[in-house]
What does this fold into?
Amino acid sequence: MSESPLQPPASDSDALLVQRTLDGDPRAFELLVIKYQRRIQRLIGRMVRETDLVEDIAQETFIKAYRGLPQFRGDAQFYTWLYRIAVNTAKKFPLEFKRQPSLSDKFFGPADDGDETFWPAGEPSSYETPETLLAAKQLAQAVNAGLQALPDDLQQALSLREIEGLSYEEIAMLMDCPLGTVRSRIFRAREIISTRLKPMLNTQTGKRW
Amino acid sequence: MQTLPQTDEALAELVSALADGQLQDPELTQALDWLSQSEQGRQQWQAYHVLGDVLRGGRALAPRAEDAFLQRLRDQIQRESLPAHRPAAANDRRFLWRMVAGLAGLVFVSLAAWQVPGWQEKFGAGPLLAQGVPAVPQGGPASAPFAAAQAPGAEPPSMIRDAQLDALLAAHKQFGGASALQGPAGFLRSATFEGKAP
It folds into this structure.
């Protein structure tokens, strides 16, 4: 493992993935979808009550983002731009239902522009079925069990990064170790937990855009 | 000089750092290249983000739902042949239509530009040069300057003159004079009284 000197945080990797998509690599857009699809679906799930509409609106959101990517100027973060597309799409998508007051309440929950990253505790989204809830619960259990089983140094590094949101530089100072060691510990922690996750993720191999 | 990692494990470490936004070139480019080509890299990218979302307190989506979502999106983009960015090719139908529309516009503007001077000649200066309707005796004071400009032997054209207008101009010739433009201007209708200098 190489020990690299202290470096400032890298430029936004999302912007680079956007640029690669624009350069003709649709696979780069897939990486953005993988990264943000959960957040986008949670956001839409808090705006729309109908289960089927959540995925449709999320699909439409990413399609619109893909179409509009040449217009993305990079003034804002990619996720901020995507967030706006998702909100607008969620508001306009089932317009025919929205025009009918009797149906409106069925499809739309209360307007909420708050942080969509986290679920409010004890507030299940209506778009989750019992099956998906169970699968998601098993996944969460695997992650948490994996975290608890980690050696202390790996667990601390990963927790500081993922839960506390600290940068590698800050973690290096807190743990009193080189930056490269932080990077290595976080990677090893992720790999150990991912070993538990991969059988559950059931990714489809060989599929290309 | 920095040695770039070659093994899958080393590349996976780059993906981990990329997920945290902590990579810089040349490792950054290497990680993106690997992710674009490697299914293993893509799976790691997904696992790392699922893991992070769960640890941050969010509930994960069902894995099968995630894959189905991704596959549906792939299919839709392929079905619609949606390019995020594609340089216009000569055989691109949209490009051809745009080219035809552009050419049509160019032809229209050219025709319009060609027609306007003809229109001016026909309807602007035309009445002054109209022939065959003698209203004022030839050789009269008003037509004298024009007649002097004619080629020798050519029949002097007669001008359409309004007798009342002539009388009016003769009565108020102090307000008239030579045309400021010093020549025919098709876009202006002017009337001056060109009598003998007092």
